[in-house]
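Quick log. Single chain, no ligands specified.
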Amino acid sequence: MNSQWSRSGLVMAMLMAVVDGVAADQKEPTDGLLELSDTVVIGTAEQELKQAPGVSIITAEDIKKRPPVNDLSDIVRKMPGVNLSGNSASGVRGNNRQIDLRGMGPENTLILIDGKPVLSRNSVRYTRSGERDTRGDSNWVPAEMVDRIEVLRGPAAARYGSGSMGGVVNIITKRPTERMTGSITAFTNVPEDSAEGVTKRTNFNLAGPLTENLTFRVYGNLNKTDADDPDINLDNTTAVTSNGAPNVAAGREGVRNKDLNGLLSWALDQRQTLDFEAGFSRQGNIYAGDVGSGSTTALEEGNMINGLLGRETNTMYRQNFAISHTGYWDFGTSKLLAQYDNTRNRRFTEGNTGSVDGNISASSEKRTNSLDNYFVQGQLDLPLDLVFEQMLTLGAEWNRQSLDDPQSINQQVGGLIPSCNLSGGGRPCLIPLPNSAAGARPTDISTDNRALFVEDNIQLSHDWTLTPGVRLDDHEKFGLNWSPSLNSAYILTDDITLKGGIAKAFKAPNLYQINPNYLIGSAGNGCAAAVSSTNGCYILGNDKLEPETSVNKELGISFNRAGWRAGITYFRNDYDNKIVAANIVTGVVNGTGGQFSNILQWDNAKDAVIKGWEGNLGIPLLGEAGETLSWNTNFTYMQHNKDSDGNPLSVVPKYTINTMLDWQATQTLSLSLTGTFYGEQKPRVVNPNLDTVVTSESQLRPREAYHIWGIGGRYELTRNLTLGAGVNNLFDKRLYREGTATNAGANTYNEPGRSFYASITASF
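-> predicted structure:
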């Protein structure tokens, strides 16, 4: 255990020890917009952690008031500590933004559905800049089928294991009901600018009893958002291709969703329930010309990006099967679940090098990657009365990931076999290189991880709750990793509560980074200059990597009285061993005409510090505790978010403020006004250890601060018919992607303009 963890843990323990008492769980909002439910008896550690400072709960009612356009990330981003970003500061996949918790990047955000990990994005190859051509895993459940979303940031997320260093987003679906119910919803979002994509969504839900002991739920969803026009960013582009055609940064891709899911719940007796679940989802893109450089290549008449615009160039098929058992016993409760999910990632073959990653043509053929994920978890919750009242949790997990990617692994390297015999001199290879002949290398790789975790929710006194925990992961390739945690809550007065936590978390390298047969190229920007390279470079997988780790700390204070709510939280993450394409030349690849390419390798090369503040303020204006009219605001301030080279881990705003005026005008009519203020976003800086990444100060352009407003309302026309409507981006603040790859600075994504949405729901 490192000294930093020991010192920080001691400070936190001393801070919490100056007071005495048990934290009776307050009805307290975590973000200024949403509230957590009361806890009247001591709960499990998991339940207690969901009331930590860095936790937000989004309810089904919140989603109805502010429906996302296509993806649940649209509403998750309204929580404190949350933004949407690419997985690096490069801006390469600027319009494929995903959920980013506390600036740690999407790859450090773990997505769960009903507590089970969703890892489909891991089937998409990982490029040198740390990007994937994916929208992430937040769009597998339609918005109307969500019961609630739990957003856990910081120490509260450590118990979930690898990949949760930034936090966890747990999407909880609606359960079967005791009486027959059903609904059908139609939703559309129409932009004012015809160059932006229209959204249409239709889904249904049916649930109820089949027999005295059997209940069921089934839902289906069809959802389509059209792509932006290919020239939407033309007026903001100055670069041209070699033949003089505009080299335009691509707009947002479209997406097609199809989902079907069924759940059967069997009450074996009064103590036991057995659930069976199966689902099938399909997500296909609608191509807008985006390639790894962010460019649409060329807008030449008659050759609109090789005839692929508007077509589906990549499709993800996800199938999941799960069985779970819950038991309520005299000694406590038990939970056991097992899930298998398979993702087939089918897409056109792509260029091998980073600069043309995603560079496809209609003449290429589609290939399929396959990712299998096996997950088993068991948990016991045991109430104890040993000195103090407490709830002890004992748990175990097993997870296996298996990836087969023939298209990436079996590509020949520049059409050549890697060689260390560079004509005219050069350094020898320091590592063995894979044979590049097609079909000569194993195309699959798998890893197993086993884990034990112990947590205890201890009621030390009437005002003080202490929640220690520890997780031990035994990774097949990286051995033992300890993740200890300590969280605590203290009631200072009836209205004021002090909460804090500290936890260590880890992330195992992904299946591409550790694969010694994975060799991906880069065209030259940022390639190491230690040995002059005339033809870019390649990055080789490294099975000697170490896991990334972080120590996450937070301390917050909250106030809650008669609808008045306020809170502020300080957080800090110390991020170590970040894996990057290191600037170490380990060999060369021969080329034609005397050209050659350096071989680099993934390595644990960077550290980073992320720290900032989150807060909330809720003001009741009318009605008891603001039930008629309330004004709620939350904010995030990123004080520091840089690695050891001075580059941000991901491009996020300096501050984000979300505010909402919520008015229950009548029993059947609700209205809301929302606003979001984004601070300045700064891009990466030039790294002196690499070749020039950005060539001039004018290309390091920040994205200036801006704000967006929206209005919406819902009206219950009858008991069984509800109408919704609203305007997104009320004042039409449009932002455009201003360049390709790093030359856009932080201006790497489109912010869509004013749009009008409407929905209708019929239910029984």
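Confidence is low (pLDDT under 50) at residues 1-40, 414-431, 687-695.
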